[in-house]
Amino acid sequence: MSDAAAPSSVRFADRLANVETSAIRELFKLLGKPGIISFAGGFPDAALFDVDGIREASLAALATNPGAALQYGATEGFDPLREQLAAFMAVKGVTELSPADLIVTTGSQQALDLIGKTLISPGDKVIVEGPTFLATIQCFKLYGAELITVPVDGQGADVDALERQIEQHRPKLVYLIPAFGNPSGATMSLQRRRRVLELAARTHTLVVEDDPYGDLYFDQPPPPSLLALSAQVPGSRACLVHCGSLSKVLSPGLRIGWMVAPPALLAKATMCKQFSDAHTSTLAQAIAAQYLAAGRMPATLARVRSIYARRAQAMVQALRQTLGDTIDFVPPQGGLFVWARLTGAGGACHDGGVLAQRAIERGVAFVPGAPFFARQPDHATLRLSFATVDEDRIREGVQRLRAALGT
Amino acid sequence: MSDAAAPSSVRFADRLANVETSAIRELFKLLGKPGIISFAGGFPDAALFDVDGIREASLAALATNPGAALQYGATEGFDPLREQLAAFMAVKGVTELSPADLIVTTGSQQALDLIGKTLISPGDKVIVEGPTFLATIQCFKLYGAELITVPVDGQGADVDALERQIEQHRPKLVYLIPAFGNPSGATMSLQRRRRVLELAARTHTLVVEDDPYGDLYFDQPPPPSLLALSAQVPGSRACLVHCGSLSKVLSPGLRIGWMVAPPALLAKATMCKQFSDAHTSTLAQAIAAQYLAAGRMPATLARVRSIYARRAQAMVQALRQTLGDTIDFVPPQGGLFVWARLTGAGGACHDGGVLAQRAIERGVAFVPGAPFFARQPDHATLRLSFATVDEDRIREGVQRLRAALGT
Lengths: 407, 407
Hints:
In chain A, the strands form three sheets. Chain A has an eight-stranded mixed β-sheet with strand order 2-9-8-7-6-3-4-5, with helices on both faces. In chain A, strands 10-11-14-13 form a four-stranded antiparallel β-sheet. In chain A, strand 7 (207-210), helix 9 and strand 8 (240-245) form a beta-alpha-beta unit. Chain A has two domains: 19-49 and 299-405, Aspartate Aminotransferase, domain 1; 51-295, 3-Layer(aba) Sandwich (Aspartate Aminotransferase, domain 2), CATH 3.40.640.10. By secondary structure, chain A is an alpha/beta fold. Chain A is globular, with a radius of gyration of 21 Å. In chain A, 41% of the residues lie in helices and 15% in strands. Chains A and B meet through helix 2, helix 3, helix 5, helix 6 and helix 10 of A and helix 2, helix 3, helix 5, helix 6 and helix 10 of B.
């Protein structure tokens, strides 16, 4: 079974022609090089996982009702977890959310997949931020979406441009990461959030809010989520889908996400989930429910926030001091990423892809920004994650970046 | 959020028009009635789960390498589990299978979804057994498959009919459950298995073998799986996909399945999985790997086999003695199901749907067989699961069935 060519018995579906293997995957193969400092990750630091808390939650899940934790479960999710997640959202200002208003998904990636499966027909237009999460681009493309991009600045998506795009393209949906976006790191302002909701309600446009990072703020919480704000904007709740995740704040390995959506959409997404994976791991759900019920989350969040805040600050300072005017960026207020643009000042490299190759040779890795654009890539951009590197190594890594930049 | 009508902002994808909500789901709502004896389930008995073994495996997974067990993982699967699964397959006669030849899926339901996503374009023809697994029918229909059925008898799918269907329809794939099928309970004979492989190789037709029940035999193991036999039939391995699962033998709540396929197909399925749920719960995978490594599976299998064998025998005897010639069936040699046909002898009810309603009133539940047919339903059929009911209750349930039959 070593021949990678498809035998004549295998004829792939047409939808596969819409996606290509990620250039980033190729880059990741180089990360095994010894001594490399990696800013390339898009994941939390495993050293910060609350292993004791998860062990206790596992034992509690298998002690409380092992039959239920190990058996098939409802496609919508394990009820004790749905209750805990509704309570978790209430703390974040999402009022009047009942457990029945959300379904549990196998990571928020599956929520994106269910959105695609439920809503996107080939040729449908979908508006995403430029840049946006790579796996969203590919996921929606697999369902045949035609992607339109709206620019992002330090205040999040440009809502004037979004309004024009909606009027021009009448999209099936708009996908946004308003808080500490991947890769943009941007925080959408309160004013823009209100405008997005008003725009959605006025034009009857479905807006998907992907919010895996909102809890990872450094100083101040970000503005309320679109979901929380929707209570203040008449008609907007019926146009809103919200995707949450425990991956960045507790553990990606649990694969626990959730999706809040209007009832008719939630019902169809549940049907699609039934035929996608039947339900999310009941054991993982029972563990997450026990963890949340044990009340450990506030302390866990406080700890990861403070550590990521220090690392972010170390990276921001090092980039400014060491790279000067060869790089431009808006310091993130939370999340895992600094999104930067090479200015080419003083003849320095201004192509993220070229720099990524040179950087690997110098012992530092990051992800070039171009693949994060569904259209019209900006080749001068790059994504740097500070989440998994301690402060001294961050400074050392930025020194290596300077060497790679050739300044 | 109580209005179930879709707001004007929600316009569903065309593919949803291909599936309808299952009639069985409506029936399942009645199962909460007190005192009901349910033969309606399609799941293993939670009372048989090896909770101690899974607790030990959980502790081991969180002690050995908690960072890895709780972090993002490779889309292909957690390597220690892939190694254990390859070894598990080797015990069942699948030689020359390396861990790289399989990917871990979120239950075998996800393997079906990935097969659909990777292979099926709208209008593609797919051959399935009549009757077959309901969630396969719906899953493939969501990708636009046009389903063709091949009849099943006590020896499994009718291979003469299959050959004709393949020649006539040139299907994208053939989907079979050769061992103790759901709902048929049938075991495909060795001779038919060989013929299926020869047919696949000769006509370059992709065959999907779904094998969640093969380990649940009562007396003798079933004939070797198509995957095991493919070593003996030149050219057949390149036409074969095999789906396995721990759901029926260990715990459905873990959601651990796997898929063996030709490399080119496995690569595309991996790409599709990346955008479906990124990867299967790493923690669940680490627990399953520890469980298999601990060597507990043989004893667990021996225990569930003997208990299901006794329950199956109790049901077979009770059906024969109590229902006589009003019902016809082939006793299963393994699995969870008796598949039966109402003969109407002596004026007894011969409609499975009608009988199901009457049976609920008498305090016994089962699933009518018609929905398991992708085409031309046989309304006289029914599926009875003995897996979760003890022997006395089985006999009592069959007495109630007799009352419902009106004989």
